[in-house]
Amino acid sequence: MNRILLIEDDIDLAKETSLALEKWGFYVDLIENFEKILEEFIDKKPDVVIMDINLPLYNGFYWCEKIRDISNVPIIFLSSRDSDMDLIMGINNGGDDYITKPFSIDVLVTKVKGIIRRAYKYSDSSSIMHYDDLIFDIEKGTIKYKNKCEDLTKNEIKIFTSLLKNKNKVVSRESLMMSLWDSDEFVTDNALTVNINRLRGKIKDIGFNDMIKTKKGMGYIIQ
């Protein structure tokens, strides 16, 4: 049974969402002490975090960054904020998906199932990929070059895997979006662009510049 940590300060909505998720076979933990979200995360060891942005004390972006310091667990933002900037901030801060309120529980369940399937499909693999002397460990979600190492988010892992598997071939934006979310129905171009740019930044930080090239009107390529 997959475990979900639901971080929502609207108690009625939290209980309603929790009951709906439990009917679909998930085990749901609710946060009661919003001062100790990170401690609760460490204690509960969830498979997925569903988190509101507007929270007491510190917002969801803050807690997402704290979780990202220690874990690559999938994080879905659930918020009444619906601007492109909020979506970009959510993805930029390490979120894997973003759902606006009011929302359909069927959409939420579909997103949760999809993100679990995608996030943990590599759990039984120790697959290692290489690009020159760069080492990409899919299972651990890390890229290493010489003495430098960077952790990748689940979305970055999938993007990098797709590009490396298709080395010297252009991978379309549509193909990447499908690999991330199975369907591009709920995805904006901004979300993919943010993920690509963040991945490029991490690759650059370990010593590779311009590895991922843009083919205008076509997609991306690693050569």
Automatic annotation (TrEMBL):
May play the central regulatory role in sporulation. It may be an element of the effector pathway responsible for the activation of sporulation genes in response to nutritional stress. Spo0A may act in concert with spo0H (a sigma factor) to control the expression of some genes that are critical to the sporulation process. Residues 3-116 form the Response regulatory domain. Gene3D superfamilies: 3.40.50.2300, 6.10.250.690, Winged helix-like DNA-binding domain superfamily/Winged helix DNA-binding domain. GO terms for molecular function: phosphorelay response regulator activity; transcription cis-regulatory region binding. The modification 4-aspartylphosphate is found at D52. Residues 126-223 form the OmpR/PhoB-type domain. It comes from the Bacteria. Pfam families: Response_reg, Trans_reg_C. Residues 126-223 bind DNA. This is Stage 0 sporulation protein A homolog. InterPro entries: CheY-like_superfamily (IPR011006), OmpR/PhoB-type_DNA-bd (IPR001867), Sig_transdc_resp-reg_C-effctor (IPR016032), Sig_transdc_resp-reg_receiver (IPR001789), WalR-like (IPR039420), WH-like_DNA-bd_sf (IPR036388). Keywords: DNA-binding, Phosphoprotein, Transcription, Transcription regulation. One of its GO terms (biological process) is regulation of DNA-templated transcription. It comes from Romboutsia weinsteinii. GO terms for cellular component: cytosol; protein-DNA complex.
